[in-house]
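Hi team,

Filling in the usual template for the complex we talked about on Friday. All components are listed, including any nucleic acid strands or ligand strings, so the model treats them as one assembly.

SUBMITTER: L.P.
PURPOSE: interface mapping
COMPONENTS: two
RESIDUES: 873
SEQUENCES:
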Amino acid sequence: MPGNSPTLPPITITDQPMTAADPKWLASDSQIAEAKKILDQHAYETVQWHFHDSTGSPFWLAKKAELKFDPLTEIKGFDDIKKFPEFEDEWLRGGPVERWIPKGLRGKPTYVFETGGTTGIPKSRVVIDDFRIDYETFSHTLPDEYFPKGANWLMLGPSGPRRLRLAVEHLCQYRGGICFCIDLDPRWVIKLIKKGWMEHLEEYKKHCIDQAITILTANHDIKCMFATPKLLESLAMGLAEKGLSIKDVGITGIFSGGTEFTPQWTRFCVEELLEGLPQESGVYMTPTYGNTLMGLACSRPITDEDDYTIAYYAPQPRAVVEIVDFDDINKVVGYGETGRVKLYTMTKEFFVPGFMERDEGERERPFQKYPWDGVSGVRPYRGFASSTTVGVY
Amino acid sequence: MLTIHPLRWGKPYKSLDTYDVIHFDTGEAIAKIGQVNGGMVQMDMRKAQNARNALRAIPTDELIKMCEKAAHLFEHETLPLGDGTQSVAEFVHHQSASTGLPEHMCRSNMKKNCFVLSNMGKILDALTRGLDLEILRRGYGEEGRNVTVSMQCQSPVLGAVLPNNSPGVHTLWLPAVPLQVGLVLKPGSQEPWTPYRMINAFIAAGIPAEAFCMYPGGHDVGGTIMSKCDKSMIFGSAQTVQQYSGNPRVQAHGPGFSKILLGDDIVDHWEDYLDLMVESVASNSGRGCINCSGIWASRHTREIAEALAARIGPIDALSPIDEKSELAAFTNPQMATGTWSMIQQDLSEAGVQDMTASYGTRLIERERCAYLRPMVVHADSPARGVAAKEYMFPFASVVKCDQKDMIKSIGQTLIGTAITADEKWIDELTNAVNIDRLNIGPVPTNRLNWLQPHEGNLIDFLFRSRAYQIAPLRAPVAAT
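RESULT (copied from the run log):
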C-alpha cells in the first residue's frame, strides 16, 4: 500500500566504476521489469485511494468531476497517470489547506510546509508522515561507516516553515542521534539578493556560518550534517580561516542538497574542501535532489572515474522523475538526451500526477540499486533560467 | 582545437567546466577554456605568500633580464598554450577573432606590451624615482645621505580582473613581477590570449611558475579575487570605478574621458593639429580609455568638427585581416545597438549636431556582430549631455567652451592634452585635480610615455614607505 516505507539498499562506495564506457552498473532487464511492476501496482492503489469517496481529499474529489475519465476504472498503471492534466503548483497557494487532506487520514496530526513566499502567498503542502517515510527510506541508503548510527547531526540549512528542517532532524533521530540546528531565513536571503545588498548578504552568510562553527566546536560530538552546497563551501572556508577543516571538526558524513550541483563543484568539494574521496579522506558527501512536493532523490555514488557526474534517482514508487521533451511533456526523451524534469508524487498523503519542475537535465539509465530512470546534469530550465534566483543559501 | 586550463600557482588545472571562445563573425569555436569557481580562488589565496617568496628568491636585476627575455619570447616565439602551442601568427589571429580587433591592431598592442616588458628596468627606475630596487626586495636599505628607507610590500600578490576588449591594458600589471609580487589574474572571457601568452613567456624565461594564477571563471571569481587579494586592479565601467572609489585595496580603471583642449593662443591654427586629433580619436578603433572623446575649444569648433568628420567619417568596416582596417567589431551586437540608441538620445538635444551624418549609415548590423562607424558630434555648449560621453568606438564631441570655463567644465579626465603656450593657463591645468595625465603641447592622447605613472603609481599602490630604525646590539655577553 502507498505510504509504506520501501527499503532501498545502502550505497557502498566500493562499487565498480560507473563510467559511461563501463555498463556493469546498469540495471538488468529483469530488475527494470520488476520495478515497473511495483510502480504500476503502486500507481493503481494511489489513485484508488485519492479518488475514492471514502478516502480521497476534497481537492481531488472535486477535480474528479472535471475529468473526462473515471480514474477509479481507467487508471490501471503508471502510464495511465498521464491521462491527468498537468499539476499546477499555483493550486497550492492559500487556504484552506485542509482541502488537501485525504478523508482517510483526517484527524491525524498534520504539518504544513511552505515553499517560496519571499513575496506573496507561499505554496503550501500538508504532510502527516511523508517526510518521515521519505527520510527513513533515504536513511537506508546512507553508508553506516560514514553516517554512524547514534551520531549527532548538524542541520546547516533553512529553518522556519520548511520540510527540510524537520526532515533532517527526523533522519538524525531515526538513526539514533540528536540534531543541532541554526537560524537561517532563506526569504530574507532572497530579498537581500533582489535588493542588491551584497554586503548584508555576506554578513548574513557569516552569521549562519558562525552559528555552525560555534556548534561544531562546542564538544557536541557531531559526525554528520546536512548542508546546501553554498553553505558547505562557506563552512569549509570559515573553518579554514581558523586553521581547521571539515574533517578536523569530526564530520564524516554529509548529506547535501537544496540547490544546484555541478560536477565541477562536486569535484572541488570532494578534492579540496573534504580533502579527497571517502576512501582517502574519511568524509563522504552525497548530493541529493528534491523539493517539498516530491521528497528526496538520491544520487549514484560520485566518483572521479565518472567525472563526478551527479545522477539522481527518485524514491520510486512513491515518486517518479521523468525527463521529457521541451515541447511535448508527455514524451520521454532518449537516454542521454536533454529534457525538462517532470515529477510525480504518489503517496497516501499527496498525489501529484505530473508536475513540470523548473529544472532540466539528461535522462540517465536505470542503475542496479535504483532500477529505474534517473536524471543527471540538473540545472535551471533554460526557459526560466534568467528570471529565477537560484542557489541562494 | 586548443583546450586552455586555469593555472593554480603555475599548475594547470583540468576543469570539468569549460566554455568556448567563439569567432565573432563565423561563430566557430576557437578554444575551450576551463573555468574555476570562487571557492578555489579562496583556497589558493591561503598560499599567496609562496608566490612572493619564490620571486624574492631571485635578484631584481635578474628578474628584469628575465622580463626582457619574456618580451622577446612573447613577440617572436611559439609558446605553450593549454594542451598545445601558439605561434605569433596564431596569437594575432586568435585575438582578432575573439575580440573583433583588426589583426594589425592586435600586432600593435603586442608591441606595446613588449615595449613595457623589454624596458622594465627603465620603467621601474622612473616609477621609483631611482630607488635601489634591492630596497624593495629586502624591505629596507640605505637611500644615500645616510638615510634609511623602508618600503613595506602591502600584498604578496596583485589581483587583476582583466577586460575583454582592450589588449593594451595589460601593460599595467606587468611591472608586478620584477617587483616580486605574484600575479592572480582573471582573464576576460574574450581576451584570454594576452595574459596567458604573457604568463607562458614569463615561465619560459625562467620566472617561477608558482608566482602565477590564472583564473578564467564567472563573476564570483572576480569578486573573490577582489576580496581576497590585499591589492587588486579591476577594469570596468564608470559604475565599477565609482564602486571602488576611495578603496585603498583596489585600483579601478574605467572610461578615460580623455580630451584635447585647444588654447585661445593657438586655436586659430587648429588645422595644424588635425592629424593629432584623428590619431587620438581613432587609433586602436577608439576602444581605449586613452582615446580622445572630447575636443574643446572656444572658437572654430564647427570647422574643427567638420574637418575631423571628413577624415574619420568615411572609415568603413573591413575584414579584420585587411591591413587598412581601422574599425573593430562589436562582438556582442546588442552592445552596438544599445550604444546607437544612447547616441540617438544625445543627438536629440538642441545644440547638438551629428557632423558625420553625410558619410553614410553608422550602425552596421551583421549576423553575429555589429559595427559603429566613427562619429563626430558638435556641441554648442559644455552643458550638452554629449560633452560628457565616451563610447567604445571612434566617437568624439567637439565642444564650444570659453577657455576660462574649460577646466571646471571638462569633468574627470584621464588624459588631457592641452595645446597652448599660455603660462597662466598651463599653471592652472597643472594644478587641476580632475586631470590625471597632463600633456602640455601637441601630444596625441594615445601616446603614453611608459616612464610616467598611469592612474596612480604602481609602486605607491603595492608598497608603503614606513619608518625603519636600526640600532646596534651591545657586545654579546660571553657564555659561561
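MY TAKE: Chain B is about 35% helix and 20% strand. The two ends of chain B are 73 Å apart (CA to CA).

Thanks, L.
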